[in-house]
Amino acid sequence: xxxxxxxxxxxxxxLGLSTxxxxxxxxxxxxxxxxxxxxxxxxxxxxGHNFGFSALYMHPLKENLxxxxxMEFGAYSVTKKIxxxxxxxxxxxxxxxxxxxxxxxxxxxxxxxxxxxxxxFKLQYEGxxxxxxxxxxxxxxxxxxxxxxxxTSKRSLEAIETSGYYAQWDAELFNPxxxxxxxxxDKKEExxxxxxxxxxxxxxxxxxxxxxDDQFLYFGIYGDYDLAxxxxxxxxxxxxxxxxxxNSVLQxxxxxxxxxxxxxxxxxxxxxxx
Length: 274
Description:
- By secondary structure, the chain is mainly β.
- The chain is 5% helix and 69% strand.
- The chain is elongated and about 80 Å long.
């Protein structure tokens, strides 16, 4: 808790705000959970979920306005499925000859899981009471910098069929299997992956219930969205390197991948005054 307050105070000092003992200071602990999606050319929710904990120090700016800073830790899981997929890949065989690697899949599934640590900053406004002095509306907006770690990618392919087309001889090979050509059946791979860190915009809206003079409960709906550009998802689900190789659907640069996620869910917060 001391670390959370020091972080919040440092932010207030950086912004030129008073850090004296002001009435209305709060330390808030939250638990949240919801659904997770991956940004693609058209954004939509994938089969995914997230779960997290956070702790923030809230410093009052005005009577109904406060600035918060703290830390957040959580876990996420996203699944991507593609049916009846086919693709091609330019490759070189073990003899140094150029050919087109062709493949067909009945089903591709990728499960991406991991943890994250974020540093959120938010501006919170508290509105009028809702028929009771103990119940008020609140809304918050802000930014957070999120670091990903312990990320894994588990990929499974069903009913794989491959071939190699050599344009220089107008010939297509459907075997041998040891070279990566033919009916390969089902395959699975699992790897640790590195994800690019980045900034998220965040928002939250809900109600604040006063338990006592210095204890409060918040019930809200939250959302956050990766500010990085989405680009295109990787369409080369397989490639050839002296045999078949299974790739991630995520874009990759210099051994790092772009997850480009967004989350929507529910959050419950307990806070107490200082």
